[in-house]
Specification:
Layout (H helix, E strand, L loop, with lengths): L1 H4 L1 E4 L4 H8 L8 E4 L7 E4 L11 H6 L5 E4 L1 H6 L24 H13 L4 H8 L37 H4 L7 E5 L5 H9 L5 E6 L2 H13 L5 E5 L2 H9 L6 E7 L17 H10 E11 L2 H12 L4 E3 H4 L21 H8 L5 E7 L2
Parallel strand pairs: 5-6, 5-8, 6-7, 8-9
Antiparallel strand pairs: 1-4, 2-3, 9-11, 10-11
């Protein structure tokens, strides 16, 4: 049934239930241990292949004391964690909700209900289904990362050394597109696969684990026109671009870390030195695409490029690009949304976009 196809992780604190599980030969091969910081050791039970009878009423009552995270069938197939509340009302007190409901029935009902809910990780998988990325490392859950990094720390103060362009790209003379703060890299992987042989794609990311995984995907997809670098773009962009033998035709800065606090604004990726470096290295006719789901951040990026006479907004060159009365692009001109863009729109947020052309 559903229990055979669903993965449940029950974080257990009860010594009694741990002992009960270890005495069950049908469950023993299917459990493992999790260690969480600042918490006692918790045992997690893997029930992906356990029969429904393995969850008696007593087990469900003990579970009323613990936190529960639920993985539905879609999570098992696509490695997407469905974020459920840690504590359900059914676990609020001993016996509450379990007087006439066995543990197996509860979780079967719960997994079915959650599986019917479309979550944003699933939308990301649908958007990038064409890539067919290896399922063994598809989700960030396999690569634990920090959401926000301080680019001003000493660890990121040294400019990255340019790679051997003849090694990372099959043809280093092709026009180059650069994504500053590329995140997982799916956005450029999709573009690189679509435009193989005519454009090179370089992603710059300050979180090293994401870079390592993105380059692994490059190899898995046999792409010869994509590469990702661990670099602080604010201080490395000029050094990298001055060494590239081909023309720089496109730079994107998409949904960068907002760093909301005023004292942290200096941590934002788009600082005056980076803006000047982008404009100086961009070939005439080249484009800069910026977007954010945070109006304050988008307005800051807009103001920086609007102040440069050589940078013209796309609607001044091509009226077919529709803008709202405030000058924000109505649609994404790239043909594919970024992961953050998908998450934000799924949550009902608006995306603020601007695209600039360098004067010829």
């Amino acid at each position: 049934g559903v229990l055979r196809k669903s993965l449940f992780l029950l974080y257990l604190r009860s010594a009694k239930i741990r002992k009960w599980i270890t005495q069950k030969p049908e469950l023993k091969p299917h459990f493992f241990h999790l260690q969480r910081s600042q918490e006692s050791a918790k045992m997690a039970v893997l029930l992906s292949h356990s029969p429904a009878c393995a969850l008696p009423r007593a087990f469900a009552r003990v579970a009323s004391h613990v936190h529960c995270s639920l993985f539905s069938l879609s999570s098992v197939c696509h490695q997407h964690r469905l974020h459920c509340p840690h504590r359900s009302k059914n676990f609020s007190s001993i016996g509450n909700g379990f007087r006439n409901l066995s543990g197996a029935n509860y979780f079967e009902e719960r997994s079915t209900r959650v599986a019917e809910t479309i979550r944003s990780p699933g939308l990301v998988a649908m958007e990038y289904a064409e890539l067919n990325l290896p399922h063994i490392c598809e989700e960030v859950g396999h690569v634990r990362i920090r959401q926000h990094v301080n680019p001003l720390s000493s660890a990121f103060s040294v400019p990255a050394e340019p790679p051997d362009w003849n090694v990372v790209f099959k043809d280093p003379l092709l026009p180059l597109m650069v994504d500053v703060g590329c995140g997982s890299g799916r956005f450029f992987l999709w573009l690189a696969k679509r435009n193989s042989g005519c454009t090179n794609y370089l992603g710059l990311e300050i979180r090293k684990k994401l870079v390592m995984r993105a380059n692994f995907w490059v190899k898995e997809l046999d792409l010869v026109n994509a590469h990702f670098m661990f670099a602080n773009a604010t201080i490395s962009f000029e050094h990298l671009m001055s060494s590239y033998p081909g023309p720089l035709v496109f730079v994107s800065i998409l949904c960068p870390d907002p760093h909301f606090k005023k004292r942290h604004h200096k941590r934002r990726v788009l600082q005056k030195p980076l803006v000047d470096s982008i404009v100086n290295n961009l070939t005439p006719g080249g484009q800069v695409f910026v977007q954010s789901d945070v109006l304050e951040v988008a307005a800051d990026m807009r103001n920086q490029f609007d102040s440069i006479p050589d940078m013209l907004h796309i609607d001044a060159i091509n009226p077919n690009f529709g803008c709202d009365p405030d000058g924000w692009l109505l649609n994404n001109p790239m043909g594919i949304r970024t992961e953050r863009e998908i998450h934000a729109e799924h949550e009902g947020s608006r995306i603020y976009r601007r695209m600039y052309n360098k004067r010829t």
